[in-house]
UniProtKB/TrEMBL annotation:
InterPro entries: KH_dom_type_1_sf, MOEP19_KH-like. GO terms for biological process: regulation of gene expression. Involved in the maintenance of embryonic stem (ES) cell pluripotency. Dispensable for self-renewal of pluripotent ES cells and establishment of germ cells. Associates with specific target mRNAs. The keyword RNA-binding applies. This is Embryonal stem cell-specific gene 1 protein. The lineage of its organism: Eukaryota, Metazoa, Chordata, Craniata, Vertebrata. It comes from the Eukaryota. Its main location: cytoplasm. The keyword Nuclease does not apply.
Amino acid sequence: MGTLPERKDIPPWVKAPEDLKDPEVLQVQTQLLEAMFGPAGSRILYIEQVSKVMLELKVLESSDLTEIVVYGSYLYKLRARWMLQSMAEWHRQRQERGMLKLEDAMKALELGPWMK
C-alpha cells in the first residue's frame, strides 16, 4: 500500500482523552491493506466515520504484519475490531481461493491434450 498516512488530528466523534485510552489492537497481513482500505488508504476516513472510531496503522518492521490500532468508545471499538477482523479474513480467503484457481489453471495447461 506504500507509505501510510500519518495521523494529524482526532476526529470529532472520538472524545479525548477517555476514548484514546486502552485501544483495541489487531494484526493483519500487510498485503491485505489495499484490499481492505483502498489505494493509499482512501477508505480509512469512511470506515472511521461509519464506525465512529479512529484508526492508526503501524507497519511492524520484523514481519509482514501491520497493526491496526482502534480508538473510540468501548462498544464502537469492539464493533470496529470485529468488522476489521472479518474484512481481513474475507480478503485472505478470497486471495487464497484465487491462488488455488490459478494453480488449477496452470495444472490444466500442463495436462492439456496437446501436451501428451
